[in-house]
TrEMBL record:
A matching Pfam family: CP_ATPgrasp_2
Lineage of source species: Bacteria, Pseudomonadati, Pseudomonadota, Alphaproteobacteria, Rhodospirillales
Record-annotated Circularly permuted ATP-grasp type domain positions: 87-462
Top-rank taxon: Bacteria
SUPFAM superfamilies xref list: Glutathione synthetase ATP-binding domain-like
InterPro entries, per database record: ATP-dep_Glu-Cys_Ligase-2, CP_ATPgrasp_2, UCP005522
Name of the featured protein: Circularly permuted type 2 ATP-grasp protein
Amino acid sequence: MNPSGTVPTDLLANYDPGGFFDELFGGPGSPAEHTSAIRGRLSSFDFADLQRRAKDAERELYNLGITFLVYSDQDAVDRILPFDVIPRVISAREWGAVEAGVVQRVTALNLFLHDIYHDQKILKDGIIPADLVTGNQNFRPQMIGLDVPFDTYVHIMGVDLVRDGQGIFRVLEDNARVPSGVSYVVENRHMMMRAFPDLVSDIGIRPVDNYGVKLLEAMSEVAPADIQDPQVVLLSPGSYNSAYFEHIFLAREMGVPLVEGRDLVVRDDRVYMKTTNGLARVDTIYRRVDDAFLDPLAFRPDSHLGVPGIMEAYRKGNVTLANAIGTGVADDKAVYCYVPRMIKYYLDQDAIIPNVETNICREPEGLALTLDRLSELVVKPVGEAGGYGITIGPRATKAELEDCRAKLLADPANYISQPMIPLSVCPTLVEEGIEPRHVDLRPFAITGRSTWVLPGGLSRVALRKGTLIVNSSQGGGSKDTWVLE
């Protein structure tokens, strides 16, 4: 805002990225020329009109049921993912590098998973500590020696990327089990096209609405080889799951049944779906149920979410599960540190998208460095998700740092540490005007016989001023991500 307390006519006139790399303006010495037309259109918007349209968009998202559940909040069970109307824009050249890097990473992780459940060469060659893999809580001995179609274990992958102060994309973490958020990518685009046709038109943005078609193609490709017209279903834990809206959305986009464990049954090591016309065979299951709850006969006997006997049907090749059982090893935060070495080992290539520099606290030198620089580093538990359990050293109190130190000393193998990355920012609509807020990016890759990457991905935005936590469960929102043609 300007000193008179009114928003200037040029919406972006007083915008200041605060020294961070900016997704719309670029960085020092590297202006974002590809966004000039979009900046010009945004500058001409009336602030009150922008606010009104933004409120209309959020109301429509809620009315459409585009929500997620928050378990820890007693007051509000259903929430919309707050949606910011100022898009994040990526040039065709930038996207080419991101896409190539994601494909490379997915390829290496699939080779790694095939290896650890077969010959374990990478462990024997000492590239990754064997106990980090075979002692991992997500390693499934039941998968040893089991072959999967095209050696694809991670069919749906979300790679969390951040951009540093120089504008370099870096991998923050991998999501190889049940990555969520793609429904918001597609719905955000639909919302922008409805609410801001004057901003979207004639820009040349790559579409995202073919995700369901691509997902169904891959799910059909990986079905058991003898099936001509495979039956695909989406297996959900049910309506109390935080991502249940997404399960409904994806089943609808693919045009396949949405089922729960009680809707499926195993007969003679084959999986069937209960229908009004009797049992119908199921060939591929896109599962949004974790390993542990998938089969009470093979994993947790107290699970009511899964299907008794499904592991044996899977082991005999009579059904395909996506993602494969045991993929959790590939998105463990400690294993993440070794992915650049995996890429070199399996592909003889350097990582196209580098990792964030990471200290592994299970290794003595990593622990020592972390303890020595605790007030400068971000410390993360390897098994947590959603931004929980993280200690951000430069912003932590003395008591929080001492608590973190005690936890590190008690269980060093449970932690990694990373430098605090000055995450890139993007202009964001707030009550006072347009201000910078930190963003990350989760591109989604689908792999059947080969890998396809959705152009763009989920741009999450830390709506609270100054915070780096973008997770929806902790107050983050999302933006539409435009990849330019």
